[in-house]
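ping. complex inputs:
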Amino acid sequence: MSLIHFQILSAAMFSIGLYGVLARRNALLVLLSIEIMLNAVNINLVAFSSYAESAQEVGQIIAIFIITVAAAEVGLAMAIILRLFRDRSSVDLDDIDLMKW
Amino acid sequence: MDFHDIKLLSPEISMGALGIIIILLDMITNRKGVLATVSVVGLAVPLSLSLYLCGLVDSDSEGKLSGVYGTVLIDQFSLFFKFFILGTLALVILSSTDYLSKLGRLRGEYHALLIFSAAGMMLLPAVTDLISIYIAIELTALPLAALIAIRRDSHSTEAGIKFLLLSAMSSAVLLYGMALIYGFTGSTEIEVIIERIAYLSTGSGPFGERVILLAVVLIVAGIGFKISVAPFQMWVPDVYEGAPTPITSYLSVASKAAGFAIMLRIFYMAFGDIRIDWASLFAILSAVSMTVGNLAAVIQTNIKRMLAYSTVAHAGFLLMGLAAVGTQADLFETPMGPGSVLFYLVAYAVTNLAAFFVIIAVVNSTRSNMIRNFAGMGQRAPVLAIILSISMISLLGIPPTVGFMGKLYIFSAAINSGLTWLVICGVLNSVVSAYYYLRVIRTMYMLEPESDTSIQIGIPPRMAIGIVGIGILVLGIIPSTVMNAAEKAVIVFF
Amino acid sequence: MTEMMAWSIFLLPLFAFIFISLVIRPFLNGYDRVSGYVAIVAVAIGFVLSIQSVLEVWNNHGKIVWPSHSWITVGSLELSVGILMDPLTAIMLVVVSGVSLMVLIYSQGYMHGDPGYSRYFAYISLFTASMIGLVLAGNIIQIYFFWELVGLCSYLLIGFWFHKPSAIAAAKKAFLVTRLGDFGFLLAILYLFANGGEIFAANASEFTGAGMSGSVFDISSVNFAAKSGFFAGSIATLVALGIFAGAVGKSAQFPLHVWLPDAMEGPTPVSALIHAATMVVAGIFLVARFFPLFEVSSTAMSFVAITGGVTALFAASMGLVMYDIKRVLAYSTVSQLGFMMLALGIGAYGPAIFHLFTHAFFKALLFLGSGSVNHATGTFDMRYMGGLKKHMPWTYYTFLIGSLSIAGIFPLAGFWSKDEIIAASLHHPDAIQIVVAIMALVAAFMTAFYMFRALFMTFHGEFRGGIAAEPDSGADSHDVHLEESPAVMVLPMVILAIPAIVAGFLFNPVIDGGIGSIPQYWFSKMLNMVDHVYVKGHPIDFFAASISSIIAVSGIGLAYLIYIRKSVNTSTIIDGEFSYMTGPVYKLIFRKYFFDELYEGKITIALFYNGVARLIDWCDRNIVDRIGNVIGFFGRNSGKVVTTLETGQVQIYGVGMSVGIVSILIVFVVWG
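pong. complex structure:
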């Protein structure tokens, strides 16, 4: 296993996540896809830190930070999505277009 | 983490404490005005701590204090933004007192979230490590998302979810770029990155290695989202329209300023050696932003939406200052480019806050954001109409307003860097923008009012409007103090 | 005298303006009399400081140099603010603050009970501040800034009674006409900036040697450059003519004089302050300020002289036939400004400024007198006045002093200053000076005539009913109350009468150390201290003095014959047997040489509406509209195109961002 394999895995996951963000219509699934993107970054960071010559721990620390912040983000997003659902009984992103042009 | 580190972070720590005090206070009191008063008065603590740090920096031989394992750097640049954010925050709190009556029991959360978000913005220009940058950005963005959705009606919620999803996506993009930088330089500290980049960027083509190009573009995209620059601007109109108006003003000024601060920090400190390459990137984005923003603003009928597109255009003008890195010959000598960005930020802040504060006051009475509802404001609310007119003139960039000085400064910087084509583009765009800025003035003075009830506003918003209204003219006539402060702040990059 | 003291002459009225408009008007509306007191105190302190600065300048032999302060530095463009304190500045300060003080005191009575009382004092304070700022300005940008501000204040004050359509029209006219001149001034500044830079850079060492900043915008440096002959070729002429264009507009010189008589729609004290004593002399001041530059170019000088002469003659002739007392005074002002311009044009710098100085006092006095008359009779039309002498003795005698002074009767102030100008024009005759001298003499005769015509029609004979007698006025005898004006109005007139009598002795061509131990030729010596311009200061010229005295006395005599003795019936002049000759001339003059018709009828309608407007209309329809259609199509539709993707669907925005990133990458990889 070389660094390049992790790179490819990470890039693939990032792309899959991005696709999910752009293609899924359910707000919750979009949120999940964003998590996949963030985890792609985490894989990248951990891989870099284990292959790096110096500052080995830094990448892992960033990964922990990202996981923590992502949790907060999801919490907030869930709250807003809940509000959205109460408001119009749907979490389909196609339906939330009150403001446009 | 020793006492020195705490000292360096003391303004942000005190902001956090203030936010918590507000939440606790909200539980025990119901009296109107207490929270706003405590918030504004409480800002004196971070302000005085920042002044104290200012004294320390001035007496330091190198003019900078570093701490928290080298991740925090207190210098003139970060102090400039601390004062900027504190001032903006105080004005926004003052201006929203009338508005808050709509918000019912969420007043405590409103103030606390504003303060938490401001703490993140104050931290952002002062951090020099990729991890800390990410944390500070999220500390800024998450409270903002909650604030955007705080009104809990369908518009506000919609704006909140749009902002949050795109913000998270842009964070992921930014992080991917940062991860690449970390992987290829082996460090997250800006000071170290600069050396490695210099070593790596010896390759041919822009940015030397392709991977650095990719990383730079991803970072630009991530921060470009915050500063609402095309093509990462599409969320701006919807969110500005849906968010509570005081939050819109806060977003358009403080959030954007913090974004530009970190942009300057990263690009002048970490990527300083390849600045000619990224200058051309910014020049292109600048031209695209102002054109897109102005053209779209022309057809708007909702004043908040119009100002949202106008903010995109102004992000374009600001990027012009980032692109003005000087010519090859005096690459490391001229602080004009970044200096003009800082001055323009102040100019834009004063002007845009004035515009939004008047809109808050008017919309509070008329309950409509449509430009046509401003008809006859010249008779219904003469003072508000004059201040809104002055701010439109300043946004347009006509003397003797501060907007003119800002444009003069930023255009001169661009010309000195040989970006004449961009300046011509900027001037043409200013001409286009006259169409929609002057339309607001025309509506207020030339059209008949729908009703002749006058607009009622409370004392605190009146103070806020007075301060920014006078500020537009005073800074337009005597800009040198702020200009000198701006140039002093960016001298750390040279 | 510190620099701060000089600044405070400017800042005090400015603070008065800010205080009145931000504190008194919003919060203390019931106490609007306070705004009068605030303004008076501010200007009074300024007046004391102005006197102080004259003494200081005299004691320091004209040189008080304060280095200018950097204002903005944007790249290579450096702008500064500073004070140029020289004899001209000091004298102008006394004129502006002195007249302004009197007018403010008078206005307390005149504007009493007006709903816009505070607003009035705020405007006057702002005007005084900007006029003082103009006078103190050390560089061209500063001058231009205050120049425009003064124009704005004038606009606000002419249109003060904005419910009167005529006032609004007059304000607009004044603004637009002076704008024409300002445009020339602006062009001159830009031309100087574009072409002066190299010249100044090449001679940088000489500027440093002379202790000048050597900036293109610095007035002393420009004048120094002119005197040292740095301006080769046509630069000096072009710049001087551009500056003169600005002066023509603001000082109401031919052919841009049309706005000043209409400007009398403003409150009368405003006419006294702005349209007689201070703002209109800004043009004279401007030419005097750049006098060394004018002296370099004989073309510019001749142009100034001829324009001044034509204006003096032309305006005086119109003053002969007006019935509105303020219009008589307005044309008289235009004519006297012509005298000053004429004097500058023939190089008589000292006499020009001296005439400016004395004129400010007696003209302000005359205007205040006309206001006082209006206060009693309710009208400005002299046909409905008459016999006011016994009702308003103070007003009568002060008005008489003013009239004698402007007519040039020995030994009043006007005699000395006008005599100096006439003497200078007779002194070194060349072709232009002879023409100009004849114009000046004829204008002087007319001046004496129309002033005493006004005096006799207003104060002598029987009272003819005031506003109540005026047709279509809708007023009755309750609006006429024949009595002397209140003391606050009489007092300033009495005070102004004093310099109108004695100010001539400042020039003092007679006795060295005589009155109050004033040195001989004090005034011109002082002016001579700095720029060493060509200042005439020769012994009293008995030839010129006797000629001008004879002319003045005969003018008064003719007025006496016609209006008191009724030896000649005015109607026979117009309608009598020579009416085929005199009638058209009278009509020509009475209709102001059809200038309004020319501007409105011929120039505005024929040339502008029919010619230019048609052309523009054609261009508009065929070029602009086509382009406009394209832009409109482009603007509206590209606006639509730009916002096509703003569908409100949040994922589209995400797609936009992703596509943006990819395109940037492609651009850099492919073309980078």
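Residues 532-536 of chain C have pLDDT under 50 and may be disordered.
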